[in-house]
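Hi everyone,

Forwarding the result from last night's run.
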Amino acid sequence: MSRGFFLTFEGLDGSGKSTQLRLLAQALTAIGKTAITTRQPGDTLLLDSKTQGVAPMTEMALMFADRAQSICEIIAPALHAGKIVLCDRFTDSTEAYQGGGRELGSEPVLALHRVLCGNLQPDLTILLLPDLDASLTRARRRNTRQQEASGNENRFEQENRAFYKRVEAKYHEIAVRDAMRVLTIKGDHPVETIQERILQSVLERMQMHGVIPYGS
């Protein structure tokens, strides 16, 4: 059986990627294509603002430990079964946040991905890059609202603007390097506008991979 379709969503905190993943999953369901959705890191300990003093290399290693297990338990079995997998963040996030933000560089991230993740590459990555300051404002407002209901996941949002400028710059670098894989949507646009562009691009890429027939 041929491999399924692996799509990842990337972007700054507050970019709207989680919302767009949910909307895409709903749109695919509407045309009879149910998708498995997952997120990384799955362990919110890595995101909790109370988790302090984690060395950059340790943080990166924990990210990859979480990812390798997710691939083993969720992503790989689904793809081998020919299913569609939508993932909220993948190795591009580690390259952007640890490689760029923490200034560890791209090479150790890519090397760990080759060793621990079997160099698994998404068939398509949606990268959302709205205005940096607007994104961070939305992320911090969201986490303030959700803190009591679902726990504190704003450790990264506490970083300064210089950190996020490095993250943003690394995302731009990834988009240029992997232009065939990464669809970059820049700027602030209505949710519906972004949703339509994503759905059109995803359907086109799925047709190229034979996941859905042409004309669907």
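The longest strand covers residues 5-11.

Cheers,
N.
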